Amino acid sequence: MSITIDAVSFAAGDTVIVNGVSLTVAKGKVLGLLGPNGSGKSSLLRLICRLRKVRSGVIRLGDDDIASLSRAALARRIAFVEQQSTTETQLTVRDVVRLGRTPHRGMLAPFGAEDDAAVEEALLRVDMQARAGQLWQTLSGGERQRVHIARSLAQAPGELLLDEPTNHLDIQHQLDILRLISKLGITCIVALHDLNLAAMFCDSLAVLQKGEVVAAGAPEEVLTEDMIGRVFGVRAHVQKSAVHGRHHIQYVLD
């Protein structure tokens, strides 16, 4: 399903965090959400999955206004991978991934073959099947992130939101995770800091600054030297990569 954000605003008290944002993500495409710290990226993701309530505007999944969906229906549609998530409960890696199946089962319903298959496939896709029986608390930060992505995949969502999913990951797993996300074939919005990774793996980009969209479109349209200077405050040289064919940013030191 597509995601449509129409003139959405959100405020915390008197402070406006998201201000009149309008964006559309086509079905099966990946939108990279960029912007400096405090630009509203995380807040916008939370508005889409209704962890925050919009002050004005409408968010739709396909033709459905999220305000009209029950919590259960929304949980079956959309998965959210946050930057940080922790628990003191003693859970194995498989236990954590199995939580992704909760929206598809009744409160007391036992796990079925379909649930088990979804869990094992999700573990395989993030290369964590060998750690399935290991306690989640014993994992590194990057390994925990991969497990949370596996949990979201086990959920079998129509829409997937990810807030800085490459945080704590080494270079190999950054590339592996974003390559995986780009090939899922489901509608994704992923907040990123790395402009080069965004250019490599996202179908389109949107740049937020102080809660407003200041640039949106194809990566080659958005990632200009002028935009990078204005929004991120750094000088950069942008050119097409001879390796992957996407735009590549080289930062210029003064």
From TrEMBL:
It comes from the Bacteria. This is ABC transporter ATP-binding protein. Keywords: ATP-binding, Nucleotide-binding, Transport. Residues 3-235 form the ABC transporter domain. One of its GO terms (molecular function) is ATP binding. It holds the Pfam family ABC_tran. The keyword Nucleus does not apply. InterPro entries: AAA+_ATPase, ABC_transporter-like_ATP-bd, P-loop_NTPase. PROSITE patterns: ABC_TRANSPORTER_2.
